[in-house]
Amino acid sequence: MKNLIRISLLIVFIVGSQLNSNAAEKAEYLKTDWSFKGPFGKFDRAALQRGYQVYTEVCSSCHSMKYLSYRNLVQSGGPEFSEAQAKAIAASFEVKDGPNADGEMFMRPGRLSDKFVMPYENEKAAQAANGGAYPPDMTVLVKARGGGVDYIYSLLQGYEDPPAGITLDDGVYYNKYMYGNKIKMSNQLSDGLVEYSDGTNATVEQMAKDVTTFLMWTAEPHLETRHRMGFKAIVYLIILTVLVYFSMKKIWSRIETEV
Amino acid sequence: MSEHEYTPKSKVGKWFNDRLPLLTLANHLTDYPTPKNLNYWWTFGGILTFCLITQIVTGLVLAMHYIAHADLAFGSVEHIMRDVNYGWLIRYIHANGASMFFLAVYIHIFRSLFYGSYKSPREIIWIIGIIIYLLMMAAAFLGYVLPWGQMSFWGATVITNLFSAIPLVGEGIVTWLWGGYSVDNPTLTRFFTLHYLIPFLILGLVVLHIWALHVPGNNNPIGIDIQKPSKDTVPFHPYIVIKDGFALLMFMIVFAFFVFYTPNILGHADNYIEANPLVTPAHIVPEWYLLPFYAILRSVPDKLLGVIAMLSAILILAALPWLDTSKIRSAVFRPLYKQFYWILVADVLILGYVGAMPAEGLYLLIARVATAYYFLHFLVILPVLGFKERTIPVPLSITEPILAGSTNLATAKNKDSIINQ
């Protein structure tokens, strides 16, 4: 009987490994150390602030961030801008409000309670401005892609000249990490593209890492609380489990049966 | 099974109990004689009750903040994740709770298969269990649609379209289910209503499941009937309560790990993209717990036959008490059945694996072989095995290690033990 199990398991493994090797054609993602990984992971505050800068100066001209509000920039566990900074950021955007008493829509400076201003009026306008491709909303983008942060980080640095034999249409670019390798977004990052206010050298790698960190936060704004609470909850559960285990042993010792 | 009549001690208690015997019920539940040799595979009943209550409680809170509207559902889920106090925690418990629920139910079902818990006199418990399992799958599928992500939308499209395979009325049924000519807002609102209803149906069936269990009492790892309650059983409280509690805590540690550290690993990334009827995802896959049945569905080239095969794969379980012709319950005393049991486990795992892969080439071939074997196990192997198998002699009782076929039979009989099998 044990032999039979072993044989069947062996078959499963052999077949399984064969199937996996078929799927392993995709490029390996670039790796970097993410401060937010692991049970004690936290965001790098400075990286979040730099990442916000990259998003605003580069990505936000096409990509919306519709579930984020300016007030979120102040919240603990995020970039933690000061309230004055966040108010200034919000005020630098024009927000459509209304209708007023005359029934007119009007523009006013943004407030903390406003959602991030969208680059386009609607999805159709976004497509029209981008050769038919809709730049996806970025709020939960890292959770909406199989490779997560590693995928986004790699994609931003994955632009290459197409290999011989592949012809690209106008407005289509070659990216070795993109599904199918064809992407309608051109290479956005180049060394020194933004000027970091904290003096960090704005290499492509640095900007890719910062903006990806920022996107991880926009997707999981409560990640730090989650990690902290998880640690406490699991430690609590383990202690309780041990106590219950010994209580159980004590109770079952009244009868002969082993528990 | 209760060995004595219960009378409340206080006068008030007696007055109340004569009119509504709740105290008798409570007494029955605490004193309920449980086989003392139950192993940890038996703790999953309690764990499943915990899962159901967790899903209902977290679900109630989510329903207070969720908006069942095609244009607003996705945003309302993000609102829960961001702005509702501990909304992220409640949603992650609910989403991972579904997976934990299925993990526990699969262990519970396979425990039944191993120890023959579905056999006489426990057929009704088993059949109610299968109905609960079916309702769980319905609830899980409906719930997965509610966030209105890409996988929600396309999963709903694929599954509801299965009904179109029914001859003559199929198309009409699909339109009726959708409330229109495609999966859209009316589909979402009715799915939300049904997703809210089904857990309470499950709760009712769970009560019947436990009631039916308390008539013959628990099966046990040896699979023989209780001979002497005083020797073979322990009262449910405190013995089983503390043991179930210990197992539940272990389970909760695993649960907590998923919720706090890898909350999205069991979901599909595409479900964080808002539903878009104009863009079909590259691969439409259901949640992991439905994959074996998805593999069976796709392994049949004909749509109608595929649906029939998938449904039969579940419904065949309801006939199991009559397909398994062996009089011996526990696989411990059935050397051949034990082997086939583990092959079935491997078969279902393989089906689950190929269900996640594209239905082409080698995957499709494996899915077909595994599907054929699945049915072969229930329709041929089990009925034949009952007649052909040479079983190992079973003990006379849970406490006495004497085997029915042993030479000590006479001595055993003198000890007032009764041969069961």
Number of strands of chain B: 2
Major sheet characteristics of chain B: 2 strands, antiparallel
Strand order of the largest sheet of chain A: 1-2
Q: Going across the biggest sheet of chain B, name each strand in turn.
A: 1-2
Main sheet summary of chain A = 2 strands, antiparallel
**CATH architecture of the domain at 21-32 and 41-68 and 115-220 in chain A, please?**
Orthogonal Bundle
Q: Report, as a whole number of angstroms, the end-to-end distance of chain B.
A: 21 Å
Integer average pLDDT of chain B: 93
The CATH class of the domain at 21-32 and 41-68 and 115-220 in chain A is Mainly Alpha
Q: What would you call the shape of chain A?
A: globular
Percent range for β-strand residues of chain A: under 5%
For the largest interface, the chains and their residue counts are: A-B, 48 and 47 residues
Question: pLDDT average of chain A, as an integer?
Answer: 91
- Form type of chain B: globular
Give the fraction of residues assigned to helices of chain A.
Answer: 40-55%
What does the secondary structure layout of this molecule look like, with pairings?
The complex is a heterodimer of chains A (259) and B (421).
Chain A: H1 2-23, H2 45-57, H3 83-91, E1 94-97, E2 106-109, H4 123-129, H5 148-156, E3 173-174, E4 182-183, H6 204-219, H7 223-252
Antiparallel strand pairs in A: 1-2, 3-4
Chain B: H1 11-19, H2 22-31, E1 33-35, H3 44-65, H4 73-82, H5 87-115, H6 123-145, H7 150-161, H8 170-178, H9 185-214, H10 229-232, E2 233-235, H11 236-261, H12 291-299, H13 303-315, H14 320-323, H15 335-355, H16 361-388, H17 409-414
Antiparallel strand pairs in B: 1-2
Helix pairs in contact in B: 3-5, 3-9, 3-11, 4-5, 5-11, 6-7, 6-9, 12-13, 12-15, 12-16, 15-16
